[in-house]
Amino acid sequence: MKGVSRCNDEKIVNYPSPLQNPLPLKGGLYVMRHTLRCFSYLCFMADVHEPEVRSYNMSRIKGKNTKPELIVRKFLFSKGFRYRINDKKLPGKPDIVLLKYKTVIFVHGCYWHGHEGCKYFVVPQTRTEWWLNKINGNKENDNKCKTVLETAGWQVISIFECQLIKEKLTTTFQNLLSLLLSK
């Protein structure tokens, strides 16, 4: 595979060696980023999207009514539980609030909330420091909100998205029911 790679624009580019870039790109300039993208195994993994595309993709990530939240809400409703969603009066705006049981449920994404030991939480290879600060900040905010809610007398339940996959779904829902009905 030396010197041959499939680039993002789906054309085959032949290089005499991975470090040489004989083809001029935009305006006759030789762009090293293009070479690194084509031969990402050399130095580091470059982003496969242009900045505009990446920005658009990131803007489409939702904070409310995510699929994991909807799965939990549908289960709770089918079992007769009635709840409020994203209550702004409580710290951290819990995803699900069960007033009758004085319980709040946070449904966390494994990546965004740094679920340790989970296959869905992988530290990005680009801008690693920035992402780790962001994810650690999310974890700190989660802990602060949990502490404040618990001191106010609320039961706090956190469910991660990996607990809602097909193989673990029944156990997760059994545990959730036992936590809710034990209070």
Would you give an account of this structure?
The protein has helices at residues 32-38, 51-59, 67-78, 128-151, 169-182; strands spanning 4-6, 12-14, 84-85, 96-98, 103-108, 155-160. It is an alpha+beta fold and 183 residues long. The chain has two domains: 4-59, no CATH class; 67-182, VSR Endonuclease (Endonuclease, Chain A, 3-Layer(aba) Sandwich), CATH 3.40.960. A hairpin with a 4-residue loop joins strand 4 (96-98) and strand 5. The model is unreliable at 1-44 (pLDDT under 50).
Q: Which characteristics define this entry?
A:
6 strands, Endonuclease, Chain A, 183 residues, disordered N terminus, two-stranded antiparallel sheet, single chain, alpha+beta, four-stranded mixed β-sheet, 13% strand, globular
Write the layout of secondary structure elements.
Layout: E1 4-6, E2 12-14, H1 32-38, H2 51-59, H3 67-78, E3 84-85, E4 96-98, E5 103-108, H4 128-151, E6 155-160, H5 169-182
Parallel strand pairs: 5-6
Antiparallel strand pairs: 1-2, 3-4, 4-5
